[in-house]
Recover the amino acids of this structure.
């Protein structure tokens, strides 16, 4: 082996072996609050949506399979209890949707996926009864993380 090729081989070996160590992640980049992990920052104030149902245009839906955001105030509709569900009072309309009327509850909400996935019942199933466990009321809070998702 010539001196030159020996030198080249050693050089290549040392290049492959000497990977620079991974840089540590600074504390403030670990969470979503962008402060030190030892801080307990107060979340920024946000306002709940105050508009009445049907007052504002519906926000754009990015995917028909996601539960749509509740576009109106829910202050008067909560809490949902065993005997009272005001969401149902307005949304349990037969459809098809008429202008100015609450969006009818979709067929999927009448199917008990655990016990009778083939049958559409006449009542909203228990797993869909607490509407706000899936549908989030709109607020003016800025998103914590941007999204570049396009359907
Ligand atoms: C007083 C009647 C009323 C009550 C009570 C009510 N809603 Fe609504 N809801 C509406 C109307 C009207 C719209 C708007 C429909 C439109 O603009 O086309 C709407 C829109 C929505 C939408 C958006 C639907 C879509 O097409 O994107 C969701 C989700 C929703 N409501 C969920 C709820 C939930 C959950 C509750 C209970 C916490 C509730 N609503 C209580 C009348 C009501
Ligand atoms: C387990 C989660 C879950 C619960 C609980 C739930 N929903 Fe939904 N909802 C969804 C999903 C997912 C969609 C979108 C897919 C679909 O239409 O089935 C949806 C869609 C809707 C829509 C839009 C229908 C359309 O034609 O665009 C309305 C209105 C609605 N839900 C009302 C309600 C009401 C009122 C309740 C409470 C009685 C409720 N939902 C409870 C998950 C849920």
């Amino acid at each position: 082996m010539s001196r030159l090729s020996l030198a080249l081989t050693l050089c290549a070996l040392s290049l492959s072996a000497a990977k620079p160590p991974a840089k540590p992640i600074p504390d403030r980049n670990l969470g979503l609050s962008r402060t030190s992990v030892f801080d307990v920052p107060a979340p920024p104030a946000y306002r709940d949506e105050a508009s009445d149902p049907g007052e504002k245009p519906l926000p754009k839906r990015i995917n028909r399979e996601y539960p749509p955001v509740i576009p109106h105030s829910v202050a008067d509709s909560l809490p949902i209890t065993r005997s009272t569900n005001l969401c149902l009072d307005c949304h349990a309309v037969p459809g098809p949707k008429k202008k100015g009327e609450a969006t009818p509850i979709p067929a999927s909400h009448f199917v008990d996926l655990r016990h009778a996935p083939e049958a559409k019942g006449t009542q909203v199933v228990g797993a869909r009864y607490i509407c706000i466990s899936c549908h989030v009321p709109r607020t003016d809070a800025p998103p914590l993380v941007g999204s570049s998702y396009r359907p």
